[in-house]
Structure formats: C-alpha cells, structure tokens
Write a structure and sequence with these properties.
Nucleotidyltransferase, domain 5, 2 domains, 15 helices, six-stranded mixed beta sheet, alpha/beta
C-alpha cells in the first residue's frame, strides 16, 4: 500500500493506492480545502482517517512542485534531499514549503515509512535548450535561471492516457499551464522558472512585461508586495475584483458583472494564444486534452475553444480527469522494484 499526499496551494489531497509501473488502483481518497495551519489540518483531519491504513502502508509519495536543476526524477527522501529542497523552496512559494511540511509531519507520524518526492518539473526535463533557455546574461543562466515548467505530474498522466504524436495537454485549474508533448515527451510548456509564467490563473498573474515590475519597484513597491500581488492578488481574482473561483465567475458573468466578464475574456484570450504557440512548437496538433478542475468539467469552455480554434484544422478534443496521485504511485513503482513487482 502506498500513501500519496498532494498538498496544493488551495487543497489537500490524500490517497491510498496499490500500483504497478503501468497502472494504479485506488483504495481510499480524501480531499479538503486548505484551512488554517497545515500541521493542525494533517493531525486533526487526515491522521484519524489514515489510522485504519497505517499498518499496511509501505511507502509514501509526495507531489513536490519544483525540483530545480538537481531533481529530474522520482527521488527517495533523505535528510540531505530535504536540505536541498529547502534551499529552492522560494522558487515555488505557494507549493514547495507546504509539501516539505507534509513530509516532515509524516516523518513524525510514521518515522519508519520510506518517503518519495515526485516533481512537477521532472516531466519537463526533456525540454530542448531553445525552449528552456531565457535570453538573459550568461552569469544569470549559470545560476540556474532557466525555464523548468510545472504541472508535470498531470501532464505526464495525460500524455500516457492520450498516446498520439502531437498532443497539447491543458491543465486548467487554480493553476494553469499547457504542455506541448511530442511522442510522449514534453518539448515546450507555458510555465517557466516559477509557476507564475504563462496563462492567467486563479490568483496568479501569468506572464507580464518584466519592465512593468521594474516600474513598480521604482515606484517604491517592495519585493514582498510584488510577490503577494503577483501570486495571491492577480489572475481571475485581480481582474474581476470578485473571486478567483471559475464557477462563481461564470455565474457572475452571466448576470452581467463587468469584472467577471473581463476576467473570463482575458483568461480565454491568453489560453487561445498559448494553445496556438504550443501548436507552432509541435508543427501541428493531433489532440488537445483538457484537464484540471476547469478543463475537465466546463462544457462551455470546451465548446468555446472548439469554435474559436477551428483554424487549427482537424483536431481531436478530449477531457481527461487529473490523476496526479495515480501518477505518483506509478512513478514510485517504476523507481522502486519492491512496488513495481506487485500490487495494482
């Protein structure tokens, strides 16, 4: 039995699975919104539900968003690994710190349980230099300033579920990104050095002109103000001045709310533009797969995209439910022969 913890920016997901390298079988799942201190939520909400499974657990896996340059594959957690991950936590401030907190909580709850880190950046380790390199000074690039890409666990799940030569995987939820996948390998993506680049998201800005940020700094805005503004006060929330919740904005836009309509319009404009960019990187597209909380469930979005992107030619449109937990279990099975030999 494998325990998988997926601590997101707004949610906490847990699952108990058995798995092989090719498939995973889910035995138990729970999900909650992130509320209050994470350690308290893990102890008071999660631990009691895990107690019946505790004797059967043989390992645990965690979604860790940013692996930096050092971590490009599923990795067994050791004190040295934790120290390295602490050092790069600032690269994904909404995600890495709570993931590491969950690892340490689990170490206290079940000290002998082997733990594995599975990285959202790992799937994008195949990006070619022209897609991963920023046009910045050499000294900056030598510090690891490059495009990493994110949502790799779900993009990999989608790529394995939709086997085709030229695939655009669209992970659309509180965080949003696209991946251009050729024959199962990521060759381009919309997120970059951090999960801020690319599409408009629930509270994250997506790409903005770096000159705008320099202007705001010269106007006296602090780095902390910029961080909070770009990560937590922008995106759909900042545009609508109402909410970052897609369903609420759909409803409000239908009732004539100007901010909600603007938020949806900007989101869709950026999404269409970036789908076009991914199609250009692939040299055409065979399938576009929508995933994530928005992508897999919004019928209207699917129809809007089909209508406005008909110029792409004959393209298959699919919706694939996200399964980061199942992908994590499969990756652990591939990394550790103890699990790859059975289960599932």
């Amino acid at each position: 039995m494998l325990l998988v913890l997926n601590v997101g920016s707004s949610s906490l997901k847990a699952a108990v699975l058995t798995a092989t390298a090719a498939s995973a079988c889910e035995h138990w799942r729970a999900e909650a919104d992130r509320q209050g201190p994470l350690a308290e939520q893990l102890s008071q909400w999660l631990a009691p539900q895990l107690e019946p499974w505790r004797p059967q657990l043989q390992a645990a896996g965690h979604r860790v968003v940013h692996g930096g340059e050092a971590f490009t594959a599923t990795t067994r957690v050791t004190p040295a690994v934790l120290e390295q991950l602490d050092a790069i936590s600032a690269l994904a401030p909404l995600h890495n710190p709570p993931a590491l907190e969950a690892i340490r909580w689990l170490q206290a709850w079940q000290p002998q349980l082997p733990q594995w880190a599975c990285f959202d950046t790992a799937f994008h380790a195949s990006l070619p230099p022209e897609a991963s390199t920023y046009a910045i000074p050499t000294a900056w690039r030598q510090q690891g300033c490059r495009r990493y890409g994110f949502h790799g666990l779900n993009h990999q799940h989608v790529a394995e579920a939709v086997a085709c030569p030229r695939l655009i995987s669209a992970h659309l939820g509180a965080g949003c990104s696209l991946a251009a996948v050729r024959d199962g390998r990521s060759i381009d993506t919309t997120m970059g050095f951090t999960p801020l680049e690319g599409l408009v998201m629930a509270s994250r800005s997506g790409s903005v002109d770096p000159g705008l940020l320099l202007h705001l700094q010269r106007q006296g805005l602090s780095l902390e103000d910029l961080d909070q503004g770009l990560n937590r006060q922008s995106g759909l929330l900042g545009l609508s001045e109402l909410s970052g919740d897609w369903r609420q904005l759909r409803s409000a836009a239908g009732a004539g709310h100007h901010g909600a309509r603007l938020a949806l319009a900007v989101f869709l404009h950026r999404l269409r533009r970036e789908i076009g960019a991914m199609a250009a990187s692939l040299g055409g597209v065979d399938q576009i797969a929508l995933s994530g909380g928005i992508g897999a469930h919004d019928d209207q979005l699917l129809e809007e995209l089909k209508a406005t992107l008909s110029w792409l030619g004959p393209v298959g449109w699919l919706r694939v439910p996200a399964d980061e937990e199942g992908m994590i279990a499969r990756l652990i099975s591939r990394a550790d022969p103890v699990f790859g030999a059975g289960g599932g």
